[in-house]
Amino acid sequence: MRRKLIAGNWKMNGSLAANAALLAGIKAELGEPACDVAVCAPAPYFAQCQAALSGSTIAWGGQDLSAHESGAYTGEVAASMLRDFGCQYVIVGHSERRAYHAETNELVAQKMLRALKAGLTPIVCVGETLAEREAEQTGRVVGQQIDAVLAAVDTEALANIVIAYEPVWAIGTGKTATPQMAQEVHAILRAALAAKNTAAAAGVRILYGGSMKPDNAKELLAMPDIDGGLIGGAALKAPDFLAIIRAA
Ligand code: PGA
Fold it and tell me: What does the CA dihedral 71, 77, 82, 83 come to, rounded to 10 degrees?
């Protein structure tokens, strides 16, 4: 039985004051969640998350990391630095990184390995664009994205990764994949994982992301291969994030 994970992706939003209010609002109402909960914050706020969330049932993490261990890489943030601030998770290969920073499948795989080596749980994102879906290329595109990841990871490490299926056309647009559409792709991803190792594949969590909101979360999360959500906009409002956690 896979324990569901609801992870917030704050993207480049927030401030000390806004984050403090958001985290206090979540903590006040969370109780004992029936799923794992995490927030992925901008790097300058890791210390704030650590101070606010240590000892709570909410984990925290980053939104990206460097493929390099350390050294002359101006502006990059190393896996060890995330660990220094208690991060447990890191998003890898989000479509905004792929689109705006030209991250390739190979670079995403390297970053995933760097995260695993540091003891972080990578949340590896895959997903097709609208043009790719309309051209009926969804299976091929997410297949290539997941294969690049699976080629790099060994079977023992496979159990320590999280996958997020995020159709690019659904991110921040208010358009959600229907539960059936999402399930279809999640099943493709599960089969690709199983081709690598059946036992490990059964334990890997595959999250859905893309305009998941309180009013559609329950239906999406009821699908057999949807093991949680990666939440953007709705993770910035405590009541919405809490409602999605409850749906899980
Ligand atoms: P959204 O973002 O929930 O605002 O669509 C999801 C994501 O990009 O991770």
Answer: -10
| Best residue for ligand 1 mutational test, from 211, 215, 237, 244 (most atoms within 8 Å of Cβ) | 211
Residues 20-51 have pLDDT tens digits of 999 999 999 999 999 999 999 999 999 999 99
Q: Is 94 one of the catalytic residues?
A: yes
The one catalytic residue in 103, 128, 166, 186 is 166
The pLDDT tens digits for 106-133 are 999 999 999 999 999 999 999 999 999 9
CA of 7 to the centre of ligand 1 (A): 10
**Rounded to 5°, angle at Cα 196 from 157 and 137:** 110
Domains in the chain, ordered, with CATH?
A: 5-247 (3.20.20.70)
Give CA–CA dist 59/48, Å, rounded. Answer: 12
Taking residues 133-162, report their average pLDDT.
95
Mean pLDDT of the chain: 96
Pocket test for ligand 1, best of 6, 123, 230 (most atoms within 8 A of CB): 230
**Angle, alpha carbons 43-83-205 (nearest 5°):** 90
